[in-house]
What does this fold into?
Amino acid sequence: MPETYAGAGVDIEAGDKAVSLIKEAVRSTYRSEVVGDIGGFGGLFALRTEGYRQPVLVASTDGVGTKALVASALGRYDTVGIDMVAMTVDDIACQGAEPLFVLDYLAVGRLQPEMAAALVEGVAEGCRQAGAALLGGEMAEHPGTMADGEFDLSGTAVGVVDRADVLGPDRVRPGNVLIGLASPGLRCNGLSLARRVYLEVAGGDLADPAWAGAGISVGEVLLEPSVIYSPALRALAGAIGPGLHAAAHITGGGLVGNVPRMLGPDSDARLEWGTWVVPPVFGEIQRLGEVEWAEMARVFNLGLGMVVAVAPGQAEAALTALRQAGVDAVVVGEVLAGTGVAQLPGLPG
It folds into this structure.
């Protein structure tokens, strides 16, 4: 019998079906700058430079990490695409950029069209929330390297900002006010530690209550989709203009690893523990795994998905703009003279 690609584990017909299933989801994200339609060898985007003196393109690539394992275990694939978009568009938002388009990459052990369609629908939902077009992507079948049901999802976001409006450490000064943007869950970071603590150390199950009295399971709390902060940051920039100085996206490295990325070498960020709500999932992970709080702060966002630095007189206007944009926000500290680190006074020992 002659050998075929399908016999080697790659099903071209399944790929064609998956593409047909995602077309409307992809089209639902298109901005007016998108040229053409799904199916080309590359996505076309007509960049509009009106209103920019020196337009600068900003790009970021990221993935969903071991959150994919939780999605596979639960058989729920429609939300992790939101996380992938959040990880990328919120990175470029920290540079002051408006996201223009996203490219996604989906690798699977065996292509199941309905699963792939659900994953891409999640990406499309994230793009709709962010106001970015899903301009193109790739679905790749990797038999022999990934098992049936396994997948990995990553992507790239591209945005634009005027060079004069780029946010960053050169704008931050002692006296700046730090505002935290609330994150109700883990986003895409620390899932390896969370899974180990819940499922191995504590010997629990994804179906168990996430903590005593919780109305949500471990699996549900681990899979909770990330808040996409990019639209709120654009609203904030529109409200206070140059009063917005910098932003830190709290991803891998937690609070202590990411907040310093928006500081110069002569400034410290002082985040006052107790000024924001720490969601119970973090306390439960700390308790079950006997994880030191200093380690928790190096791994997790602890309830703050993003921290922004604003001019001293702009804090109230900033809080109003963020809340009107649908993001819970609170003053969490200030910038002090220092050496470029994040201080967390009051962090439990």
